[in-house]
Amino acid sequence: MRLDELSKSIIVNTICNNFSEVFKIILFGSRADDSKKGGDIDLLIETPLPCISLL
């Protein structure tokens, strides 16, 4: 995984501060694979409630 602990902590804290309840946070794409290149961070956030108002 190409994210340091501080970056992971900031991402998780930011998500948890903006969603009332989070079931799962999944990192995927190039940042999840040490052998790939790429700069973006792909996240899937599972919550029990619709979050259309946050988009």
Automatic annotation (TrEMBL):
Which is an annotated Pfam family here?
NTP_transf_2
Entry superkingdom: Bacteria
Q: Which GO terms describe its molecular function?
A: nucleotidyltransferase activity
Ranges of residues in domain Polymerase nucleotidyl transferase:
11-49
| Gene3D superfamilies in the record | Beta Polymerase, domain 2 (3.30.460.10)
The molecule here is called Nucleotidyltransferase domain-containing protein
